[in-house]
Amino acid sequence: MKDTPKPDKRRKYDAAFRAEALRLAEQSRSAQAAARALNIDPKRIYQWQKAAQTPVAAALGAALDSDTAAELRQLRALARRQAQELAILKKAIAIFSQTETP
Questions:
Q1: Who is most buried in 7, 52, 68, 81, counting CB within 10 A?
Q2: Model pLDDT for residues 3-55, shown as the tens digit of each residue
Q3: Claim to verify: residue 50 and residue 31 sit in the same structural domain
Q4: Residue 41 falls within a domain, yes or no?
Q5: Per its UniProt record, what Gene3D superfamilies does this chain match (predicted)?
Q6: What one-character-per-residue DSSP string does 27-89 give?
Q7: pLDDT-based confidence at 102, cuts 50/70/90?
Q8: Domain extent for 77
Q9: CA 102, CA 99: separation in Å to the nearest integer?
C-alpha cells in the first residue's frame, strides 16, 4: 500500500468570501437565508459571526473611539472584580456549610 496523504475534502473559504457572507447575513437579517443563497451550511455563518464578535476580532477590525474604549476598560475591570467576589463567596459558603461533628 502507498502511504499517500488523503486529500483534504473540506472547502476552504477566503476572507473576502467570509466578509461577503457576513454582509449578506446582516443585510437579510437571516443567516439561514444567506447560507441558502451562498449554498453553504448555516452553521458555518454562525461560526463566522461568533468569531467576528470576539474581542480580538473587534480590536483588529476597527479601532474604538476613546469613550467606548474607556467604557470597555471599566466594564472589564468590573467583570473581573465581580468574578473575584463570586469566587470568595463560593469559598465562604463552602466553609460555613461544613458541619462540625463533636
A1: 52
A2: 666 666 777 777 788 787 888 788 877 788 878 778 788 888 888 878 877 76
A3: yes
A4: yes
A5: Winged helix-like DNA-binding domain superfamily/Winged helix DNA-binding domain
A6: HHT-HHHHHHHHTS-HHHHHHHHHHHTSHHHHHHH-PPPHHHHHHHHHHHHHHHHHHHHHHHH
A7: low
A8: 66-101
A9: 10
Cβ-proximal residues to 28 (8 Å cutoff; 6+ apart), any chain:
34, 37
Task: For residue 4, tell me if it sits in a domain.
Answer: no
Grid coordinates in use for 80? 473581573
Q: Give the separation between CA 72 and CA 79, rounded to whole angstroms.
A: 10
Task: State how far the Cα of 101 lies from the Cα of 47, in Å rounded to an integer.
Answer: 53
Q: pTM of this prediction?
A: 0.44
State the burial class of residue 48 (Cβ atoms within 10 Å of its Cβ: 0-12, 13-18, 19+).
buried
Residue 30, Ramachandran bin (φ over 0: left; ψ between -120 and 50: alpha; else beta): beta
